[in-house]
Amino acid sequence: MNTQRSVRLSKYLSKHLRHKPERIGLTLDAQGWVPVDALMPAAAAHGFRFSRDELAAVVAGNDKQRFTIEDGRIRANQGHSVRVDLGLPPAEPPAYLFHGTVARNVAAIQEAGLLPMGRHAVHLSPDRDTATRVGARRGKPVVLAVDAAAMHRAGHVFHVSANGVWLTDRVPARFLRFPG
């Protein structure tokens, strides 16, 4: 499968497994899973056909490991705007985590902290390089350091998704370290 097809399928899966499953007639279970045998015909009925081999290649080859296939089911690992419970246990975070954004968002973040916006959780990266890549998707990246150890001691709960993205309900501004 060529790169363009792979990217197109990954974006299609993200849209329908994270945000708009109903658009193609899918219903995710409480943990965000849908049978592959339901996904493929639903996609085909809406004009987007793909093979099991293509699906497996996108899941295995996705640079961010956005999806998991297990027991004939598929789900997005995080980033949902639809209500799901990923069943992730609480986890003790490393001392610092990182969040990539762009300069136009910094003033609002300094005031309100990091909020999940349209998602169920704030996404944090385990390293600066990953956060830089995340921020760069929207422009020149700004990387914020999160004092995750202090947040954890203060009672904030963290979870880590199957692909290593750290999730928390919000990050108050007092736990953020801004560059400069």
Characteristic terms for this protein:
single chain; 180 residues; alpha+beta; Arc Repressor Mutant, subunit A; ADP-ribosylation fold; 3-stranded antiparallel beta sheet; 34% helix
* Sheet with most strands: 3 strands, antiparallel
What is the approximate shape? globular
- CATH C-level label of the largest domain: Alpha Beta
Provide the number of structural domains.
Answer: 2
Structural class: alpha+beta
Q: In percent terms, what proportion of residues is strand?
A: 15-25%
Output the strand order for the largest sheet.
1-3-2
Function: Removes the 2'-phosphate from RNA via an intermediate in which the phosphate is ADP-ribosylated by NAD followed by a presumed transesterification to release the RNA and generate ADP-ribose 1''-2''-cyclic phosphate (APPR>P). May function as an ADP-ribosylase.
EC number: 2.7.1.-
Protein name: Probable RNA 2'-phosphotransferase
Keywords: NAD, Transferase
Annotate the secondary structure layout.
Elements: H1 3-19, E1 34-35, H2 36-45, H3 52-61, E2 67-70, E3 73-76, E4 96-102, H4 103-112, E5 122-124, H5 128-136, E6 141-147, H6 148-153, E7 158-160, E8 166-168, E9 176-177
Antiparallel strand pairs: 1-3, 2-3, 4-6, 5-8, 6-9, 7-8
